[in-house]
Amino acid sequence: MVKKPKLTEEEKRLLKIRKERKKREPDFVRQESWRYIRIKENWRRPRGIDSKMRLKRKGWPKCPDIGYGSPKLVRGLHPSGFREVLVYNPSQLDEIDPDKEAIRIAHAVGKKKRLEIIKKAEELGIRVLNKVV
User: Which of 13, 30, 37, 48 is 20–30 Å from 74 (CA)?
Assistant: First the structure.
């Protein structure tokens, strides 16, 4: 059974808006990444004094701007509507509110402790975002 977060109508509406706006948002690519194989597309801010991208010239890729931000109420929420909490051990699960928060098990956690966390989370009714073992 998939647990749903307890959201207000306003939060549900804003999550929908965020999802729709994200579709229209351009892909922010690193300057000259299309030109050189050695430069990955990962975003880096253009800083050169003659940079056309930094100057926001027509015909150049868009840069992230304050206008692309998501609504304040839903900023930082997982697309499911839960607030993500990073967990390293089973004892941290006691502080989690299952109605509003979901957990993501940290990358450094081994298989044995990961299984313990998943088992305890199921008992407490907490959603695990990366359950793969």
Answer: 30
